[in-house]
Amino acid sequence: MGIAAQNPDVELEVAENPQDILFNYLRNLIYSPAKAKLDIERLPEGYRDFGKGLLYFAECVMETTAMAKSLSKGDLNGKLPSRGNEIAAPLKALHATLRHLTWQTQQVAKGDYKQRVSFMGEFADSFNTMIEQLDQRRNALLQEIENNMRKSEALEQNNSLLEAITSNISQWIVVADRKSGDWLYVNRDVGNILAELESEPKLRSWLLEKLRTDTEVKGKHIAELDLDNGRSAQYFSVVVHPLRWHEHDAVAFVFTDVSSEKKQMHKLQNVAYHDTLTRAFNRHYGMEILTEWLGVSTSFIICFVDMDNLKYVNDKFGHAEGDKYIMRVVGVLRRFSPDSILCRLGGDEFMILAQKWTIEDAEAQLENLRAKLMEYSDDPECSYNHSLSYGVVKVDCDNMLSASELLGMADEKMYRYKRKHKMQRPPARE
Hints:
The protein is of the alpha+beta class. It folds into 3 domains: 15-112, no CATH class; 159-262, PAS domain (Beta-Lactamase, 2-Layer Sandwich), CATH 3.30.450.20; 274-420, Alpha-Beta Plaits (2-Layer Sandwich). Helices cover 48% and strands 17% of the residues. It is built from 13 helices and 10 strands. The protein has helices at 3-6, 18-31, 45-72, 89-109, 121-151, 159-166, 200-213, 259-273, 283-295, 310-317, 319-333, 359-374, 403-420; strands spanning 172-177, 183-186, 221-228, 233-245, 248-257, 281-282, 300-307, 341-346, 349-355, 388-395. A 5-stranded antiparallel beta sheet has the order 2-1-5-4-3, sandwiched between helices. Helix 10 (310-317) packs antiparallel against helix 11 (319-333). The protein is flat and about 125 Å long.
């Protein structure tokens, strides 16, 4: 039994519970580090070694926390935890890795593209790929320089020699001051380049805009210039190259006239997207637009239009007359609306795509156009009736149907219309 139990009349001093002292210290260490204090002398003899160990643990935690804060700010020069601090070992390893990566990055910046990272997983793959690409680009640039050197033994990359060379090449070159926009050098007069001098203000405006907007662009890049004054069009592919020119921060513009190529491309696009007979858009273009509008979840209508009696006209009066009939139908359908897209799907079938239309308004407009077309039938010289049938489908933003399904729905509505409005008189007049 203890002394108090043996002599209950003895008054004992009530000691603090050592567990409470240690717990309070640990709690302050976590939530209020500035208030965390532990007096070893207040602990019973049996708890003092534990208290000393806890103090050392707290020191390690504080060192580790301080290091983590420094790393989170990108500071690699902060004080490192003590050598015996095993808690901070992973952070010290990370610190060493980051310092090594920093050194490697500095080496790459100096042109050492042999640096590789063999750890850190996906980062290593991305880093190594980037270095390989930089190395490839440098080698390509060196090869380009070497090729240029072979072309002229006396070639020195200076502006004087550049002037001598550029005066004899087909491209038009303008070197302009980046700040003022002044032309520092041109290899030939602008009048020898432009098809019409009226385009010069637009050209100068384009150059000033490029100088203003490309201030952050450091390397060579390619731009396009379209000089269209309404009567004629001229197209240029322009290589834009920042450089120093006689102490000026300048940009060199190398213009190549690609007007013939551009016009040829427009012709090819025109052939690819337009019906040969009617010059309306063809099925290929119409399906592209339909698919594109479905992809952006816009609201629009599909009008499926079918000519009445075209086969009869072809068989009775010949395909030349049938073509005239088709052209009359196209001429009428073009009046649907200025912003609608008219496509000939094939033979006697047409599709109109238009946004911001209701089914009711579209059907009313088609009825008007149908009436206009039927006026041709009143001509005494005409031996057959002119008419068309149609079906209209509304496509909403939440549409889940495919292009072919929507066309099928419009086609079915067209056939219902055709059966309902079958002409009372015969298709031809004998």
